TrEMBL record:
Species assigned in the record: Pyrobaculum calidifontis (strain DSM 21063 / JCM 11548 / VA1)
Chain segments annotated as transmembrane: 12-33, 39-62, 74-99, 119-152
A GO molecular-function descriptor: endopeptidase activity
BP terms from Gene Ontology: CAAX-box protein maturation
Protein name: Abortive infection protein
UniProt domain CAAX prenyl protease 2/Lysostaphin resistance protein A-like: residue ranges: 86-171
PANTHER family: CAAX AMINO TERMINAL PROTEASE FAMILY PROTEIN, SLR1288 PROTEIN
Amino acid sequence: MYFAKPPICLGLYIGAVIYAAFLPAGLLTQWRLSRAFPLAFAAYFLALIAAGLIAAIPPIGAEFQRLQRAQAEFFARAATCPLGTVAVGAQALILAPLVEETLFRGMLFEEVKRKVGTVAAYLVSSALFAVLHSPGLGALPIFVISLALAYAYHKHGLISSVLIHFTQNFIAFAMAHGGV
């Protein structure tokens, strides 16, 4: 029975519904993909290297490892829910990249850029994205990766940041499920 499962199941299902409710926000943004899109992936991989170097700093690395352990625990607990792995996969691979990139890049980035400027748009959208994913020192590596997502959006279109976000989440999801 669905209700006999742990509370995480209810949270998982509600989370999927909340993410899905934000999908129409994607209609408010411009979807384009630049021909130079591979440069966005190059910037992303450089950001991964930089994030790894930042995570090598002991206090930051410890915080970041706590985040990774929490994610692994969440994936394991969610897998006990009916359709749990499917729901987590849908959230991580489809809903999160679409919704988060639309909100943080397509809307917030553009609004901050319009009001304060491009540099502020990079910093504000990336900082808020990072803190949402990991408050504290663990946000620093995510901030660097988020800057690459902002670059991908700004220079190559929303679809490029969505595809890179999907790639990031796919790798994390596959690693959590023993696929990488």
